[in-house]
Amino acid sequence: MSGFFGSISGSDCVNDVFYGTDYHSHLGTKRAGLAFLSKEKGFQRAIHSLEDGYFRNKFENDIKSFSGNSGIGVISDTEAQPIVVNSHMGRFAVATVSKIVNIDELEKYFTDKHHTFSETSQGTINPTELAAMLIAEGKDFVSGIENVFNRVKGSCSILVLTEAGILAARDKLGRTPVIVGKKEDGYAAAFETCSFSNLGYEIEKYLGPGEIVRITASGYEQLRKPNDKMQVCAFLWVYYGYPPSFYEGINVDETRYRCGAALAKNDTVKADFVAGIPDSGVGHAMGYSNATCIPLKRPYAKYTPTWPRSFMPQSQQMRDLVAKMKLIPNKSVIKDKSGVFLDDSIVRGTQLRDNVRDLHQAGIKEVNMRIACPPLTYPCEFLNFSRSRSSLELATHKAVKELENKDNVDMKEYSDWKSEKYKAMVDKIRQDLDLTTLTFQKMDDLVEAIGLPKEKLCTHCFDGSSYFD
Q1: Which of 71, 210, 296, 469 could form a disulfide with 36 if both were Cys (CB 3.0 to 4.6 A apart)?
Q2: pLDDT tens digit sequence for 81-128
Q3: According to the 3-state scheme, what is the secondary structure of the chain?
Q4: pLDDT in tens, 337-396
């Protein structure tokens, strides 16, 4: 995933963009960048790697020399951005939150036209540079962004920094959010609304799917109306989103409380405590604890001063080690006790398996796991959701392979919580993870907890139901 922030005001906006972008640090792990525009200096840009440090440390020296009343910043899980380009529409900077599934096809389209790519990303072309090239094919910025919508399979939300203001464009199916904020002397656009409050912004507008607005220091204007269809990622509320943030007017943490309460609704397990797997599991655990009146405790403490990210090292072996180092078990809470543990999801199950092993070594009596979303039975086609390189790495697929002794199994029945195949898969995962009991959220309960109609949510990774167009 990635996250971006842009600001334009009547005064210098460098600090707002710096801190606003920093509030998106939970969404990206590899690269970050800032771009500003001023009359005196023109476009200024800096990009740094985040794999060996924090956003604020990497950019604190850069912002001393930057100036401008408009700027954009982005933290990315993949490519270096923003990209600054020159075109027939003038010079502009672009930042994206995207996953371009047909990137090879589009690369061939441009190379066949004798275009060249100057940026690279993880051994291939830079998706944001590709988006910039698609924008430059338009007669103006609106038609150029529409060209991105029409040509890209996957998802792409965009911020474009121009001399006439900042253009904010939400993915054509709204898979990722873009929200406009307002304060006394300017406006901002962001992925996370939690970036607004401490900088003095109030939520002004949630962009609709495919909507494009131009933002200036004095206001904003709609350049393209939103599309009717929406497929916003349900996982934003379950996992990605920061607790104080709102998407579609719906708060992240309130949704997690409702998810936890839904899991408690028909649960009969007896336990000494409820706990959340840090960090996103905590909100779900609060909801479960409040619904059952089982006390909420902290059997794990998360140690963050020197281990801020479990995915910084390049090798999976080292990432797993760092993940283990971050969570310190508290034997006083654990020993001879029965616990209900809430987590956002089970992707590969590797880290959870290690956590459960630690709990058993600390003397726990029962580990009852409750997962806030349905099983992940389909790979995500629309966002950079999982670091798993193949669907076969998913815990569900590994369990089904053991049950059926073959790959490439039709997962439709395994996605239906009422089917016997689903029950067998869940029990296999339970055994593999050495859990006492394991329950996943039912799809209807997840949809109700979020509060949007099912057809407006992307639930593809749970049921394979979503689409590109």
Answers
A1: 71
A2: 999 999 999 999 999 999 999 999 999 999 999 999 988 777 789 999
A3: CCEEEEEEECCCCHHHHHHHHHCCHHHCCCEEEEEEEECCCEEEEEEEECCCCCHHHHHCCHHHCCCCCEEEEEEECCCCCCEEEEECCEEEEEEEEEEECCHHHHHHHHHHCCCCCCCEECCEECHHHHHHHHHHCCCCHHHHHHHHHHHCCEEEEEEEEECCEEEEECCCCCCCCCEEEEECCEEEEECCHHHCHHHCCEEEEECCCCCEEEEECCEEEEEECCCCCCCEECHHHHHHCCCCCEECCEEHHHHHHHHHHHHHHCCCCCCCEEEECCCCHHHHHHHHHHHHCCCECCCEEECCCCCCCCCCCCCHHHHHHHHHHHEEECHHHHCCCEEEEEECCCCCCHHHHHHHHHHHHCCCCEEEEEECCCCCCCCCCCCCCCCCCCHHHCHHHHHHHHHHCCCCCCCCHHHCCCCHHHHHHHHHHHHHHCCCEEEECCHHHHHHHHCCCHHHEECHHHHCCCCCC
A4: 999 999 999 999 988 998 899 999 999 999 999 999 999 999 998 997 655 556 778 999
